[in-house]
Amino acid sequence: MTQAAEFLGEILDDSIFQIDGNAAARNFWYGVCAVIGIAAFFNFAQKVTAFSRLRSAASNRPHPASPSNFLTISLATVTAIGREASYPQFMPQNGIVANLFKIPPMGTIILLVAYLVPTATLTTLEGGVTRVCIDSKSIKKWTPGSHVLLSVPVIGILQSHPATIASIPSSHGGKLVFLLKGHKGFTGRLITAAETSPGSRPTWKARIDGPYGNTADYATFDTVLLISGSTVVDSDTDSDEITSIDEKGTKITSRPKATSASSVNSGTRSSVLPCAVFHSGRPDFHPLIGELLEKAEGETGIAVCGPLGLNSKVRDYGGQV
Q: How far apart are CA 143 and CA 238, in angstroms?
């Protein structure tokens, strides 16, 4: 009985969640108050407009519904634009389509689109990298190595940048995470926006086209070579996953390669994989791939995730050997 009571007490004890819960509740009620305030303002404006028109009609003024001052003209213009934009509705006239499909008015479609527009959070990381975390209500499933065309209209209204998804659906609360190295153009403006407005603008409206691409199941190959470059290494197997695979009995061979002799001599040993030494730089893949294919048994899969030049060079080497 005592153990059951203690267990029940632990379940009902929410002290660890009080801070986060209070913050979430506070933000929720702030949002509710804002919505109520906006609705009350428009309701008050509508009643004032109706009262003004009735008063003008009682005074026998011509065109009592016509706006007479700057405030009423502005209000009438805004409401007319919003109202008329929501009116159009396409309805099939004949055939089976007309009986089976009913398309909602444009106003309803606009509300649905506004609800589905993803929001992005920008965070600067070391090395001039921007971490883009997007909460999308329409994209909830993707495969490792998939990429999208990412657009942030405020930063570049007509620009879309390819980006590899560096997360999986079960991580980060189902959000899509991208790591973009800041260069010129879109990625440069992206990291500038993340650095200059971290607090004043916590979220950004984004547009996602995709996801595209699909990788083969590496379990179907006898030998697999994973090559990662730039900031997209997250889509390949990381050190923790390699350790997990090694513990399951899969044979893992780590042979880091690098171009310059200085980088080879200054390699750092991994605390996760003591047998592996990591170096920076782009290696010569021709002998690496040739040696791998010579000693491989059965089918060999080569997966490349990185810049276009890296993909092209590895593809050429694979074709040569």
A: 16
By the 8 A CB rule, do 314 and 301 touch? no
The pLDDT of residue 275: 53
Is 176 exposed, middle or buried, given 0-12, 13-18 or 19+ CB atoms closer than 10 A? buried
Residue of higher predicted confidence among 228 and 41? 41
Amino acid at 232: V
Both tokens assigned to 267: 């390699």
What is the C-alpha to C-alpha distance for residues 125 and 78, in angstroms, rounded to an integer? 42
Q: Is the peptide bond before 211 cis (omega within 30 degrees of 0)?
A: yes
Mean pLDDT value of segment 232-240:
46
Interatomic CA distance for residues 263 and 279, integer angstroms? 6
Domain extents for the chain?
16-87, 112-212, 216-232+267-320
Please write the tens of the pLDDT for every residue from 167-206.
Answer: 888 888 888 899 888 888 888 888 888 888 766 567 788 8
Q: Which residues of 220-240 are buried (b: 16+ CB within 10 A; e: fewer)?
A: ebebbbebbbebbbbbbbeee
Phi, psi (rounded to 5 degrees) for 277: -120, 130
The mean pLDDT of 231-242, rounded to a whole number, is 47
Q: What is the pTM of this model?
A: 0.48
Architecture of the domain delimited by 112-212: Beta Barrel (2.40)
- The token pair at 312 is 């092209």
Task: Supply φ then ψ for residue 255, to 5 degrees.
Answer: -135, 80
